[in-house]
Structures are given as C-alpha cells and as structure tokens.
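Problem: given the chain below (604 residues), write out its structure.
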Amino acid sequence: MASEQYEYDAVIVGAGVMGALVAKKLTEAGKKVLILEAGRASGLSFASYQSYVETYRKAEIKDTNSPYVQNAMAPSPYERDIAKSSERTPDLNGYQVQKGPLPFGSTYLRSLGGTTLHWLGTCPRMLPSDFRLHSLYGVGRDWPIDYDEIAPYYCEAEWAIGVSANKEDQSYFGVHFPEDYDYPMERIPLSWSDLQIAAAVDGSTLRLGSQDYPVWVESLPQARNAIPRKGYTPQGAVGAEHLGQRCEGNASCIPICPVQAKYSALKTLSRLNPARATLRTQAVATALKLGADGRIAGIEVAQYSDEAGALPVHRGTVRGRLYVLAAHAVENAKLLLASKAANRSDQVGRNLMDHPFFITWALAPKNLGMFRGPGQTAGIPSFRDGAFRRDFAAMRIDLGNWGWDVATYPPASDVVSRVGQGLYGSALRRQLADELPRQLRIGFDIEQLPESRNRVTISPEFMGPLGSYRPVLHYDLSDYTQRAMLAATEIADHVYRCMGIAPQNILSHYEPSDPSYMTFKHKGKTVGLSFIGAGHHMGTHRMGSSPKDSVTDKHSRAWDHDNLYIVGCGSMVTSGSANPTLTGAALSLMAADAMLRQLKQEAP
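Solution.
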C-alpha cells in the first residue's frame, strides 16, 4: 500500500456501530469517507454471516466471542483468558495484558461490525442526574453536556439502530421525550417470569439507609426488531431482508442472533453509498502521523492478506481532511498512546470503567417459564438514582430469562450434575423439567466512578502482531462500588422474600478461586462476593470543558489536534447504570454534526 496523496473528507478507524453511524451521517451529507477495519471482512453477505452461526453451533465453549474465530492479525480478548493478576505477576493468557489487582472481565470483538455482533442489544438512556453526578451527590464528575443537549441525539440514535420500547415505560427519574416522539418499534413483550416477578414486587418498598425506595419492574429498550410504528421499516438480515423482521426468540442473543433480528453495525455498513464510502478491511491502524502544525497528517496502516501472517503485509499512509477514531474505548486509547497524541492532559487511557456485573440466584417455588426468548426483557430501575448515591453506586437490575445463566451455565451443568447423582432417562427428564423453569437469576449492573488508576497503558514489553501494541489493563473497584455490591444482596433478598422463596433456596455462592473474589465485613460477618464484566468499556478518552483534565471537547474533538475526533463510549465522563452503547452512539452522531460544520467552514 503506497502512500496515498489524495484526500477523503474523513478517515474513520473502526467499522463498529460508532464508525458506521458517523460514516452514514457524513456520506448522506455528500462527504467521502474511508473506513479502516482491523478485522476480517466477513458478515456483509448472508452466507458469510451464516458461517458465524455454524461456528457457534459447533463450539464446545459458547462464550461471548465463540462464533467468531480468533484472528491472529487482529486478536480479540476472550473471557476464557481471564485469570488472577497483579503488577508483579500479570495475566498474559490472552490479547490483553492484565495487571490487576482485580480482573477487567469484559471482552470486545475486532471484526467488521464490531462488538454489536455479540452484544445483547439493551439500550436504556442515561438519566439526567448521571450528567450532574458531582453537583448532585458530591462524587464523580459532571459532564460538559446535560441531558437536554444529548436528548435529540438519543432520539436520532434510537431510530438509526432500531430500538423497541414505549416512551411511557422509560419516563422515570427525569427522563423525558419530545411530545410527538416515540421509539421506532413497540416494546418487546415482557416474559412470563417478568410478569410473575412484577406481580410479587410492584408496590413494595425497601429501606436503604434512612430512606424507603419503591420497587417496580419495567420493560427494557432493546435494539431488536418488534412491531414497527410511525412508518418505520425494520431492517432484517443483511443479504436476506425477509429474515429477522421480528425477534423470533432464538435465545442466543449473546453471542449471536441467527436471523439478525438484533441490530449490528453490519446493517448500517451494508447500506452505505459505495460511491462515497470506501471500506477497507484487514487494515490495522498502527499510528497517527503528527504534523508540524499540531494537526494529524495521516494514519499509518498495515494491511494483511492472510490472517496467519504468511503473506506479505502492505504498509502505507492514508490521509483525509478529518480523522475519526471509532475503534473502541480500549483500541482508541492504545492507538493514541502509541502515537503520543491527544494526551496533553495525561488522561488518555485513564478512567477506564465498566459496570461490574454482580449476580445472585435462587430456585423459585413455582414455574417461571425460563429459557424462552431474549436474554432479558425487563429489569428493576428503582436503584438507578437516589440519595444513596452519596454513599454507594447506582445500579440497574437485570431480570434474566435464561435461568441461572452465567452463574452456573445451565442447562448443561444441570444435566452433568444430575447424571453424576445417578439420574438418567425419564427420572432425569422429570427432574430437569421441574427445576430448570424455576431458576431465577438477578443481575446488577453497578455504576463505577472514573478513577485515574484504572487505565489502559502500552509497553514495548508486550507487542502484538504487525508491530502494534497489546493493551495493558490496570483495574480495581473502589469502596463506593463495593458498597453497592453489598446493597445489591439486600435488594435481591427483598425480591426473593416478595416471591416467597425460602432462604434455603437462595443458592448464590462465590468461590475464592474466582479471579474477582473479594471479602467484606458486613453486619458482623465476613462476606465473600465476586463479579464478572458487563462488556461496557467506558471513559478512556473522556470529554470535558478544559484541555487540562480531558481529552476532547463536548463534541468529541481532541483538544490537541483540531482535525481529530475520538468517538464512542470512551468519551463518557461517568458510567451511570445504563448500558453505554446508545449513549456512545448519540455522542458519535453529535460529533458527526460538528464534523460537518467544520468541513463546511474549512471547505477548500
């Protein structure tokens, strides 16, 4: 790949949801863009997507990235690689180098379409209070924007990716919508278990600290096709539009929707105007070239033909009027650090956040109809905001539809356990038919505050293929988040009491061998708890009001380079308790408007 002298209006690194939405908005305005994707080119035909489905069906371990074969030239992190680690004994098992003291348990996917290939599709908005956390509760930081400024872009993002929800269900804790607005599709119906839990807990209250909090079950917005409204046409499977027009309840949303009823960035990429959008896959951005004037002068790219690295790698430089990093919160930070770019504030890579996912589980006294439909259709929003946030973190509560899910990996684990106890044949079937539908799992997506010590770094000691770096992660949980885990146990116990679940049937337990195992003193006892990653990477190039303590301005434009935009969930200042993809998409669309204004002002 020789050095390219011609220019695009924008060069976009990353063909996931953020890069795809920016490309769509720019090309619809008549701009020419080049999209660089480090991963393979699969997925833009029906046959290549179905190869993912077949890989998943054959996989012995069905974890988050199991449908997507590891690519040696653009590796992805896998859950099975996560182990205990420390600064002195780092975890070197996978693509990411973990230096602890706790594991960052979340994964992402470096492939065309990005992590939307394996996400669940849950799309709640952040609350107005989440943008003013420090002003309201004295913790965290305030954003340089408020809810009203991002709200129009939430609307745009919901229609761009196709979200199913009813706005009256989502109008709580100050979330509001334009009077004439509604989501493009009706909400996904609540599952039978959602309805049973709602009947038990709605109208109840739970005292935390000195305040009572009402408890209720509410539906979740989801980027999954349902009944359309207002003339919206759901986008079905890429290359086979007649499929996936409605969610079919295949119950494998994570890691793959076999009919593509769930949104992935492949849907947006497949509809880009080829006269204005050039997509280059298997092209790894290795460094930003810095010009003498402080602007970005190009992006160095290594393009590989063979995933095993057997064929020659072609290297060159691509140029554009604007440059957009939309790779991922970790990959964006890694590229900036490798380029010594956009880091006057020393905040690049810092403030890495997730939603530590804490799980409890129990066996209900009656059939809840588990193992049907999407992974979750409702949750308990009661503790997403409140005065308790001065003392411990907010949380969004998931009600799972897949039994004990990642807590014990049913039903396979149940079969193995019962066969080990001597059950087989009709007796085994009766036992499973009785127990599996009664498995109740409650999950807590817990807010994490931005902390400088939680970060992505790079080191020449840990190099990946093509001369690029492997990300090195340093991660821990603050007391603020840990106290929320203890509060979560009280909330779960409240739900179980309301449902008439006896204490001996609350079966949650946490093993000291878990990489994330922690002990606490609580009510005179030592309590051991653990968590897993939610897959919600945030905060590594946060926006702000000053170049002294942030990487970009509120439009995601780098303070240090006025032709560089860094978009996605890494721009988020705080995590709140909402799954971050919708917020990242809204921020990316907001940034795209700023790009168009800049391109107009700087027209040659």
